[in-house]
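the two lines:
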Amino acid sequence: MFSNIRIVLVNTSLAANIGSAARALKTMGLRQLVLVDPKVFPSSEATALASGASDVLATARVVATLEEAIADCSLVIGASARSRTIPWPLLNAREAGELVQLESSKHPVALVFGREDRGLTNEELHQCHYHVSIPSDEEYGVLNVASAVQVIAYEVRMAHLMAEKGVVAQKTMPLAHAPWDEDIVPVSDMEQFFTHFETALIESGFLDPNNPRQMPARVRRMFSRLRLDRLEYNLWRGIFSRMQAMASEITQLKKG
Amino acid sequence: MFSNIRIVLVNTSLAANIGSAARALKTMGLRQLVLVDPKVFPSSEATALASGASDVLATARVVATLEEAIADCSLVIGASARSRTIPWPLLNAREAGELVQLESSKHPVALVFGREDRGLTNEELHQCHYHVSIPSDEEYGVLNVASAVQVIAYEVRMAHLMAEKGVVAQKTMPLAHAPWDEDIVPVSDMEQFFTHFETALIESGFLDPNNPRQMPARVRRMFSRLRLDRLEYNLWRGIFSRMQAMASEITQLKKG
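prediction for all of em together
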């Protein structure tokens, strides 16, 4: 029932945490673990701490980059403890559970957790549609990574059980509730989208590649929030191409 | 604010679990730990895993029996994974959090967790007013004791936050939660925005004004969903103007 939901651990240092996380997600009925560039894996320590969840470790996928881990996902939620310079759409753990419940029947969903000491980098957080934060003590808010997985996975399960009972979340989440007429494009299509957009802006003389300032991050945030459907995606690609064509026509005309 | 709430661990075998539990409860703003007849305490392993929560270990009370740990409490809730021969009033984790929230302002409350391998004995469970169970996978429901503490303490904190903010806060949209760095533009600014966009697309030769088909409606829907902030709004207006400037430059160059 949770076959579309994966837990992604980025750059985990301690083998014990991988094992504990595997156990945590399995207790909540999840099964899919993806490890992005783990320090040590597989390891006997992870297996020991996984207890009865060694099957989760055995089927865990190891990849080199976050991009690979989330390529086919249409909803990516990244755990974030700190407040960021550019705020991102933010969910608490309960809202994240509800959103995953609403969407995981439609497309693959990733819940992403960062390093023990410093979480996810800003660049990694910018690849997420939403950030999730577990409400915690103001002075001591550092949950162990396996504990964070436990709480979020628990909320996913609770949301599922509530939905089964007919207790539907009353919140309005953009796109989540609405039956949409077009598919949402997966993350893997968005990298070339951003590259195309930036190239078009540079060729049009709108963006200085040597001094982009915050613009690429803001564009990323904007489109992450939007989560384009296929038709919208194609519309933008067409507009970017048109901008490039105009820029190149100007260059040609100037040459004579 | 949680001064009336204590976490009680009965007969814990592994020092590491005591340390992890201390960390877990402290992240949720709790401070009181009572250890009933622990196998090893204090220990360097517990302190290592407590991370920044060694103060919780330092002030932990060690007692010989559960009776001593809960003597002054008017609400005692015991963690129970299995269903028992004699059914007891049973709460799920969320309900337990809500009950603790309702009562902890009035009198001391204990949340009791059992041994790693077999939880609380029937006799111990019968000393509790309620049992609490964390909804878990039917085939693999064994949460690590520190993970169980984490989830229950999280629900206590959530219930507290909900009571503080009111349930209405839960029903708002994700964007409303995030402290955003820029104002969201009012709807009144969007009409000229759409006109500007369409004009730019027409002048660029991308949109046929005599046959726009569904495009204006789709563009409207897309930006309504997005709810632009002021900086994003200005960014787009700049891009539209740049498209118009390119189109007009092409016209000029062709003339001359």
